[in-house]
């Protein structure tokens, strides 16, 4: 790692103090001049980051991207994956928040390294799962997350196997995960590295991968924000080892790189020689939450806060240049507004959007001018050439695929369209026997001649 974390604590104090006198923490959304172009392309914003991303936290719609498919080191942002696995264990009852954890030898050794982010763990004490969880997220404590991993799996290697399976279950196939903390492999023992990895290896993912990981974490465990938004907290309070944990996310309200119009409440920073400065951030503004990722932001000195400046530029760009449009339930789309019916009173049925859907569009654009759709039948309801009547109103009769002009609707999971349920607002009635017979006779003669 480039920087001593002990020195960083001093720098945090300096920058935070400067913020109080210079008004940095009161900067607004418009302190970085918004770009005039409204596009998801990388040319829209001047960033130091090698790769960057902004997505809607609920839908995963990509709003901005720069080299978002490039596989790069992620450093301690790795802990978001580790924490997801830990929360799975708690949800399943295999861990409890107040469960006591004994520190293993390797986790203890790492925790004593003051050149890394750590809280000093003791071999003679036990710590609760909650204490170690908080230290991992607030202070990026490497020994703490390793101790949790050992508690779950008995070894770092076996916990990494869980992490690899986790990201694979989300459709992430380009992940390179070799340890639980995000440290460079050279910082940990050979036994704690995943078999086959080298001392120079680091965990690597794409910006889109990190966006998807954060999206899934927030969807499943939104309570994680209660911890990631904590600015400072004491670890092992009231003991000789008490450590004040200052959150490395300086964009939290009241900290050095906070912006009054961007109430950031998460998620995780990461720093290493190879990775540079990284940050997965999230903010909820005007009722809409977005997730941002920067990988490889400038890392020239202790006071370089480029990852936060880059993040602020992306967040400002999104909220300044885009509007959230709601496509209401009941909306129909040209060329995708009907499906054929087999033996129905009517030969076709209207297809409409079953539920409200939100999309981010450039300011000034409308759903009608940007969004188009195709429709496919629900095959479980099909007989021969169409939907088999009768069918109750508001049934799931098909799938509408919404696409955007100039790839306006792309998603962090790789989808190039928003797939949503199409429904029939009225009952599809079956034709009586006489109508069915008449149609059969008419078709017979039609085909005959």
TrEMBL record:
Top-level lineage group: Bacteria
PANTHER family: D-ALANYL-D-ALANINE CARBOXYPEPTIDASE, D-ALANYL-D-ALANINE CARBOXYPEPTIDASE DACA
Domain Peptidase S11 D-Ala-D-Ala carboxypeptidase A C-terminal: 324-410
Signal peptide: 1-26
Involved pathway(s): Cell wall biogenesis; peptidoglycan biosynthesis
Protein name: serine-type D-Ala-D-Ala carboxypeptidase
Single GO term (MF): serine-type D-Ala-D-Ala carboxypeptidase activity
Known function: Removes C-terminal D-alanyl residues from sugar-peptide cell wall precursors.
Active site (UniProt): 76 (acyl-ester intermediate), 79 (proton acceptor), 140
Residues that coordinate or bind substrate: 268
Known catalytic reactions: Preferential cleavage: (Ac)2-L-Lys-D-Ala-|-D-Ala. Also transpeptidation of peptidyl-alanyl moieties that are N-acyl substituents of D-alanine
Catalytic activity, EC: 3.4.16.4
GO BP terms in the entry: cell wall organization; peptidoglycan biosynthetic process; proteolysis; regulation of cell shape
Domain Peptidase S11 D-alanyl-D-alanine carboxypeptidase A N-terminal: from-to ranges: 40-297
């Amino acid at each position: 790692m480039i920087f001593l974390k002990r020195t960083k604590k001093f720098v945090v104090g300096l920058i935070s103090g400067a913020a109080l006198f210079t008004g940095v923490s009161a900067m607004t959304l418009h302190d970085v001049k918004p770009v005039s172009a409204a596009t998801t392309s990388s040319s829209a914003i001047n960033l130091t980051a090698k790769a960057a991303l902004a997505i809607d936290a609920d839908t995963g719609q990509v709003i901005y991207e720069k080299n978002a498919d490039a596989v790069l080191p992620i450093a301690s942002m790795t802990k978001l994956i580790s924490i997801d696995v830990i929360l799975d264990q708690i949800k399943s009852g295999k861990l409890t928040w107040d469960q006591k954890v004994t520190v293993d030898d390797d986790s203890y050794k790492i925790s004593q390294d003051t050149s890394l982010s750590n809280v000093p763990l003791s071999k003679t004490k036990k710590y609760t799962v909650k204490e170690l969880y908080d230290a991992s997220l607030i202070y990026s404590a490497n020994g703490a997350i390793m101790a949790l991993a050992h508690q779950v799996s008995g070894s770092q290697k076996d916990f990494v196997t869980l992490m690899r399976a986790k990201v694979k279950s989300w459709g992430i196939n380009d992940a390179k995960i070799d340890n639980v903390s995000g440290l460079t492999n050279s910082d940990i023992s050979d036994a704690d590295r995943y078999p086959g990895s080298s001392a120079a290896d680091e965990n690597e993912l794409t910006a889109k991968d990190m966006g998807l990981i954060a999206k899934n974490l927030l969807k499943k465990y939104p309570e994680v924000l209660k911890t990631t938004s904590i600015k400072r907290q004491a670890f092992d309070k009231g003991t000789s080892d008490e450590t004040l944990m200052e959150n490395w996310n300086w964009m939290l309200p009241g900290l050095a790189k906070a912006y009054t119009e961007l109430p950031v409440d998460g998620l995780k920073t990461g720093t290493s020689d190879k990775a540079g400065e990284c940050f997965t951030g999230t903010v909820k503004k005007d009722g809409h939450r977005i997730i941002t990722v920067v990988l490889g932001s400038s890392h020239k000195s202790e006071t370089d806060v480029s990852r936060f400046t880059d993040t602020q530029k992306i967040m400002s760009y999104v909220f300044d240049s885009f509007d959230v449009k709601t496509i209401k339930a009941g909306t129909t789309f040209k060329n995708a507004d009907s499906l054929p019916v087999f033996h129905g009173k009517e030969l076709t049925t209207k297809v409409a959007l079953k539920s409200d859907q939100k999309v981010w569009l450039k300011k000034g654009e409308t759903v009608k001018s940007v969004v188009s759709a195709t429709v496919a039948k629900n095959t479980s309801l099909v007989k021969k050439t169409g939907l088999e009547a009768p069918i109750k109103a508001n049934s799931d009769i098909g799938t509408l695929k919404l696409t955007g002009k100039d790839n306006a609707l792309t998603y962090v999971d790789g989808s190039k369209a928003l797939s949503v349920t199409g429904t029939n607002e009225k009952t599809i009635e079956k034709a009586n026997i006489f109508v069915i017979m008449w149609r059969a006779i008419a078709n017979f003669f039609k085909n005959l001649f």
